[in-house]
Write a structure and sequence with these properties.
The chain has 201 residues and is mainly alpha-helical. It has helices at residues 3-18, 26-33, 37-44, 47-71, 76-93, 95-102, 124-129, 136-151, 161-180, 187-195.
Length: 201
């Protein structure tokens, strides 16, 4: 991603932390990023385009974190625990990730339509951002499938892939419930460890 585009997305995210999206002005985002307003419009086309690109970046960052969490351990159970912990911490620390995972978009946030929008952008990253954005159900499937891919293979779990997929989806849904209603002592770690089937090793 070109440096100017990333700087503009950083500036938009910073602005969002201080005021509602409806009051964020494109000229202020451009000034914060140290580029011209024309550069901002060349990259994103409109404020809606900027919102879609910002949501896409945060979605990609969350999913990259899931991948890192799944790769951080060799034990299958600990891989799923790490992915669940990442999900809850990412949602706690990033209002856009929380909104994407729960589908609860407050009036302070941009809430771009999840379906694709017509794009005539010459910028490949913007054409991708103008494509469909993941819904909460999409995130469940995306994280479940990444977990299944990370855990499948010889000796990963006694039983079939369907059982593994079920266990992975259970962890994803349990971590999302912890985003909506944070658990008490022991947190998501103990909930996930207690919910996983014994054959997952």
């Amino acid at each position: 991603m070109p440096a100017a585009r990333e700087s503009l997305l950083d500036a938009a995210y910073t602005a969002l932390a201080h005021r509602p999206w409806s009051t964020v002005r494109m000229v202020d985002v451009a000034a914060e990023a140290g580029v011209s307003r024309q550069t901002l419009y060349n990259e994103f086309g409109s404020k809606e385009g900027l919102a879609r690109a910002l949501v896409r970046r945060e979605a990609d960052g969350y999913l990259a974190g899931v991948e890192r969490a799944l790769a951080a351990h060799t034990d299958a159970r600990e891989r799923l625990v790490a992915a669940a912990e990442w999900t809850t911490s990412a949602a706690r620390g990033n209002v856009l990730v929380r909104a994407m995972l729960t589908g609860c978009w407050s009036e302070r946030l941009p809430s771009p339509t999840l379906s694709a929008v017509p794009s005539s952008s010459a910028v490949p990253a913007q054409r991708r951002a103008d494509g469909p954005l993941p819904s909460p159900a999409d995130f469940v499937a995306l994280v479940r499938d990444r977990a299944v891919a990370a855990l499948s293979g010889p000796g990963a779990m006694r039983g079939d892939v369907g059982e593994l997929a079920g266990a992975c989806e259970l962890v994803v849904r349990l971590s999302l419930s912890c985003v909506a209603a944070p658990p008490g002592e022991g947190g998501v770690t103990e909930l996930v460890r207690g919910a996983l089937p014994r054959q997952l090793r």
